[in-house]
Amino acid sequence: MIKLKEALLKKEQEDEMVKKRVLEIIEKIKKEGDHALRQYNILFDGCKRENYLIREEEIQKAYKSISETTLDDLRFAAKNIEEFSKRQKEMLKDMKEQELLPGVFLGHRAIPVDACAGYVPGGRYPLPSSALMSIIPAKVAGVKRIVACSPAIKGTNCIHPATLVAMDLAGANEIYAMGGSQAIAALAYGTESIKAVDMIVGPGNQYVTEAKRQVSGEVGIDFLAGPSEVVVIADSTANPTVIAADILAQSEHDPQARGILLCTDERIGKETIKEVENFLKELSTAEIAKVAWENNGEVILFDTIESAINFCNEIAPEHLEIQVKNFDEVVPKLTNYGSLFVGEGAAEVFGDYVAGTNHILPTMKAARYTGGVWVGTFMKIVTNQRVTEEGLKLIVPVASRLGELEGLYAHKLAADVRLKSSIL
After folding, report:
1. Which EC class is this protein assigned (predicted)?
2. Model-level pTM?
3. Does 359 belong to an annotated binding site?
4. Most CB atoms closer than 10 Å: which of 87, 104, 127, 291?
């Protein structure tokens, strides 16, 4: 393994000051509700709204303020996301009672959560695509109450119109102009004007992520998301220009974003570095992308594609692109990633916007144990059992002995009593 381009900065340790500040905000929201929410919204966003619920006339105004092309694009993306979510939901079916043992019937139901919230960032850029990604799968899942929120544009009382339209198109039942850790606290614990939800999904900055960490357990969350990241595995057949563009597409998100190339051809690696530098000369977001590339970007040369695959599985990237000749041999060996993009035509940006797969994905190696947001995120698989007299004769003696083994004698009693009484 040879590093043709190495990251300059190591991953920063968790900021204790952020933890402390977020805890203060959460506690204040819990105690003071809407009053504290208004204080923080004024402090952080300059939003002076008295009522954070977006009214219907505001939504209609947003529709009128965006172009027909933008509206058509949002509808196109929404349709694809919805269709893919519907096809995913077909995999989540109720399992009717099945007789596992004589007289022992088991099954499960797939039940949507009652209420969820989609947090849509609005800091550095408006992100209407994130509204579609968080709300549409919940709608398809059958969630009855879907809440959406996003911070107001700095110094105003309004959510970005494209984001607001996307929230409405996606099917949100309630939309609130609020952001930051104070919004997460309000959604988790409720205020006088906002009813708490059961689950919160969606990306955000370090304060939003820390707030989700602190309220997790009180409500469900998708996962803790960090800076965006992409890994590209490439052999000699890959296109350095395409790779460079895809790396920069991640790098422009945030100064902490990561773009990594794992290649088996030195020429591809060096040409990609050159192409990145060329693009940065003209890229309008170069101020951010250049910092991310210089500090966090890596190009690593491997002797074999197997070595690159093994290294990638250890990284467990959010986005993984493979630009290799024999991709059908490579794909089965890849086990840790948020979303996979196969071949030169499968740009990560398509996953961000229009292909139909979700772009709310695990970062910081979380892909080792979870996938991204999908229709199943909003559904619970809950089991059921029914036992006849025939089944009791089979399982009571075993359950009784195991209860006694563990010293839980009421467990033993609860099993034994079912054979000793005529309850059936």
Report:
1. oxidoreductase
2. 0.93
3. no
4. 127
Closest CA to 266 of 10, 64, 4, 42: 4
Q: Tens digit of pLDDT for each residue in 365-400?
A: 999 999 999 999 999 999 999 999 999 999 999 999
Answer yes or no: 318 catalytic.
yes
352 annotated among ligand-binding-site residues: yes
CB within 8 A of 349, min separation 6: which ones? 246, 249
Which residues lie across from 231 on neighbouring strands? 260, 320
Fold for 16-221, please state it.
Answer: Rossmann fold (3.40.50)
- State the catalytic residue, choosing from 174, 252, 319, 348: 319
- pLDDT at position 420, please? 77
Dihedrals phi, psi of 143, to nearest 5 degrees = -60, 130
15 labeled part of a ligand binding site: no
Tell whether 319 is in a known binding site. Answer: yes
CATH of domain 227-368: 3.40.50.1980
- Known binder of ligand: residue 119? yes
For 355-364, what is the mean pLDDT? 96
The CA distance from 84 to 417, in Å, is 50
pLDDT at residue 123 in the model: 65
Confidence band of 423 (pLDDT split at 50, 70, 90): low
Out of 318, 321, 344, 348, which one is annotated catalytic? 318
Residue among 215, 156, 220 nearest 380 (CA): 220
Amino acid, res. 346: A
Cα 225 to Cα 256: distance, rounded to the nearest angstrom = 12
Give 193-232 pLDDT, tens digit per residue: 999 999 999 999 999 999 999 999 999 999 998 889 999 9
| Residue 9: per-residue pLDDT | 61
DSSP code for 123: S
Average pLDDT in the chain: 95
For the four alpha carbons of 215, 216, 222 and 225, in that order, the dihedral sign comes to: positive
Can you give the residue ranges of every domain in the chain? 16-221, 227-368, 388-420
406 annotated binding-site participant:
yes
Q: Is 35 a catalytic residue?
A: no
Which residue, 235, 234, 204, is CA-closest to 221?
204
Q: What is the DSSP letter of 407?
A: T
